[in-house]
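Reading is simple: each integer encodes one residue's backbone shape. The lines below illustrate:
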Amino acid sequence: MHGTAVDRSQVYVPGDPDSGTRDLSWQAPRDTGRGKLRHVTYDSPGHVTPADQNYLVVYTPPGYDARRAEPYPTLYLSHGGGENEMGWSTQGALADIMDNLIHTGEVRPMVVVMPNATGYASSTNEKLHRTDLIERVFPWVEQHYNVSTAAADRAYSGLSAGGMRTVYLMLDNTEQFGYYGLMSAGLPTGTTFPDELKSALAKVSVFVGGGWQDPINQGYLTHHRGPLRAVRDLTAAGVHVQSDFIDGGHEWYVWRVLLRDFLTRVAFLPQTSATADWGA
């Protein structure tokens, strides 16, 4: 059934400052200043399941103003394998995280779009999903919400399989987003960096993160080589990468932390203008 969450539950246990535990209160629900979540259907000709339609979950920030003079930036956020558009708004606690980060001023108010990336026919590097995103989801979101149409005001991030969608967009549709956040995913085997791609990647901001204990770091999968190697390979190609690895495995605890770090350290922040020899 569409719009259903996965069959798992989670419980937040407040940290005790006296015990020295990590403060995760930025993931907890707020009593006031809360944004809104909306589950929507849009036309997607050629989509298989459901036929010719697909789904989005959209988060709007507290005080969202459809007539604000300055359009909102947009984060496109992708789920992992075996999940759907509901993953981030349920297990990922997306709305609570955004509400808290916006309240503290750590991030700008933004619209977050969580597409369903399943139900397409098979295609190389998920090209059908990428095409649907650019040709149908972008126009739908821009028609229904007060968001910027500039690539510099769009970010894309995802976990695991969603991290691979981030990679495919970064390598094949680089001009569509200003910021790319790879979580628990790496570069496809055999990835090369021709000059044209290097030039394109120099204009965007790239974030790569994961859990230190995540077995995916071993690069054992045939279709990609893991996030640690992605940092190495991108850096070797001259691409500036912000990396973030924390204690944890292939799990939601890690991805929630990485989302916060991507948003507070990379997404919608200007690239450095310092020269290579600055401070030398």
In short: The beta strands are 36-43, 53-60, 74-78, 111-115, 154-159, 179-183, 205-211, 241-246.
